[in-house]
Write a structure and sequence with these properties.
Blueprint: H1 3-29, H2 35-56, H3 63-77, H4 80-92, H5 96-124
Helix pairs in contact: 1-2, 1-3, 2-3, 2-5, 4-5
Length: 125
């Protein structure tokens, strides 16, 4: 499998997973706050931290599988463009507090989740 096929296949599956998570969150929590996109960004950051450390510590995966997981699946799963759209949407509705919480929470929790994933990977090694 070529790298571009790995990215395309992973991206398609990641985008589908993102759509499912965002839709389920909206059904469960309502559409007023972009909890699904926030969850996707945090979960994707956790997964990227885990994968990055495992790869850096010598997990042996083919270039195609590494590309499928990182640039493909996780790249398709976590999108900052959706984050921006949701933040602007909240601000345009005059929900400045929710917009600020969403923006700061997504970034802070994403960084913390990445660090947690990295720590988890180190514990597994």
């Amino acid at each position: 499998m070529s790298l571009w096929v790995a990215v395309a296949a992973g991206g398609a599956l990641g985008a589908l997973a993102r759509w499912l998570v965002v839709g389920q969150a909206a059904r469960l929590l309502g559409p007023d706050f972009p909890a699904g996109t926030m969850a996707v960004n945090v979960l994707g950051s956790l997964a990227m931290g885990l994968v990055a450390v495992l790869l850096a510590q010598g997990l042996s995966l083919s270039a195609e599988l590494r590309t499928f997981l990182t640039a493909g699946f996780l790249g398709g799963f976590t999108t900052f463009s959706a984050y921006t759209l949701d933040a602007v949407g909240l601000a345009e509705k005059g929900e400045w507090g929710a917009a600020a919480f969403y923006m700061a929470g997504s970034v802070a929790l994403g960084i913390l989740a990445f660090l947690a994933g990295a720590r988890l990977a180190r514990l597994l090694l």
